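Incident log, support desk, overnight shift.

02:14 A customer reports that sequence design results differ from what the structure should imply. Their input is reproduced verbatim below. On-call engineer (initials T.W.) acknowledged and began investigating.
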């Protein structure tokens, strides 16, 4: 529901001071009686006719302090899980909340951070061989969170077509 415009609020207060009833103003402006009474009550309580829209809605829990704390936690331990990060905050948060906040900080989970890549389980490898070696940064720690890459300005696709498409088949 939209707030009553300020000009109409001023006219409601002016007409009320002139002696008009709430019923007459309701019919004149097309608002219900409760809206007319509410404008008068808000004017008495706050002394202004401006709508108080800045206090509407649920306030975010991702305050600048929590943003700084989460950034500090990720820098200290980049391989921490979402659950571990949620527990280490100033109060416990669920993994879905932590994922949302990390995305807002433009940090993403590196899915193949501990492996070279994905391969089928039975083909192309020797028996008993590991799927891949641990990879990490210069310190030897596995790097899990990283900054997201930006999309191309022209929106060009980064994947190339298959061999059949290139051959024109």
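02:41 Re-run completed on a clean worker. Output:
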């Amino acid at each position: 529901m939209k707030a009553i415009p300020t000009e109409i609020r001023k006219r409601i207060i002016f007409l009320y001071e002139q002696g008009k009833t709430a019923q007459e103003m309701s019919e004149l402006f097309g608002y219900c009686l409760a809206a007319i009474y509410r404008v008068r009550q808000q004017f008495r309580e706050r002394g202004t006719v401006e709508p108080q829209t800045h206090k509407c809605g649920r306030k975010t829990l991702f305050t600048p302090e929590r943003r700084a704390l989460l950034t500090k936690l990720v820098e200290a331990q980049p391989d921490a899980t979402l659950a571990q990060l949620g527990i280490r905050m100033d109060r416990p948060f669920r993994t879905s909340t932590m994922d949302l906040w990390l995305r807002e900080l433009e940090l993403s989970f590196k899915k193949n951070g501990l492996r070279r890549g994905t391969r089928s389980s039975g083909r192309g490898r020797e028996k008993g061989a590991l799927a891949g070696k641990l990879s990490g940064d210069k310190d030897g720690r596995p790097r899990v969170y990283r900054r997201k890459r930006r999309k191309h300005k022209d929106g060009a696709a980064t994947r190339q077509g298959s061999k059949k498409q290139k051959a024109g088949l």
